[in-house]
Description:
The chain has helices spanning 10-17, 20-31, 39-49, 57-78, 97-110; strands at residues 36-38, 82-85, 90-93. The chain has one domain: Arc Repressor Mutant, subunit A (Orthogonal Bundle), CATH 1.10.10. Helices cover 60% and strands 10% of the residues.
Amino acid sequence: MTHPIQTVSTETALRILAEPERRSVLARLIDSEDNVVTRDELVEYVSLENPPPEQPGAICTERLLLRLDHTHLPKLEETGFIEWDKRTKTVRYRPNERVEKLHQFVTAEFER
């Protein structure tokens, strides 16, 4: 599916994609049927894609929730890649051809 390229620099996109948990967030959103997922779905997907070091599950989940709420989702929203509704705890991906191409490249080349 081809989407219009939003105005975002390659540098900004790569900076966002440099973080493995943000790549996982974007992967889940890009693969969703309607580009919308709940925060809980993201937590589950990101934790499976980025297994934490040996720590109890509840602690890891809480830390991931904090990173999503205070770091990853705000950064993705600031760049215009997502819309984050804190009230409903849903995240909507705003399709971006450049980001999708870079995401595919970074994932294919560096996550083997």
